[in-house]
Amino acid sequence: MIKAFVFDAYGTLYDVQSVAAVTDAAFPGHGSYITQVWRLKQLEYTWLRSLMGRYEDFWTVTRDALAYTLKTLDLAADERLFDELAEAYNRLTPYPDAAATLERLSAHRRAILSNGSPGMLAALVRNSGLDRLLEQTISVDSRRVFKPDPRAYELVEERLGVAPGEVLFVSSNGFDIAGAKSFGFRVARIQRVPPSALAGEIGTETRLEPLTLFKALRMQDEMLGYGADVTVRSLAELADLPPG
Amino acid sequence: MIKAFVFDAYGTLYDVQSVAAVTDAAFPGHGSYITQVWRLKQLEYTWLRSLMGRYEDFWTVTRDALAYTLKTLDLAADERLFDELAEAYNRLTPYPDAAATLERLSAHRRAILSNGSPGMLAALVRNSGLDRLLEQTISVDSRRVFKPDPRAYELVEERLGVAPGEVLFVSSNGFDIAGAKSFGFRVARIQRVPPSALAGEIGTETRLEPLTLFKALRMQDEMLGYGADVTVRSLAELADLPPG
Question: How many CB atoms lie within 10 A of CB B184?
Answer without folding.
Answer: 16
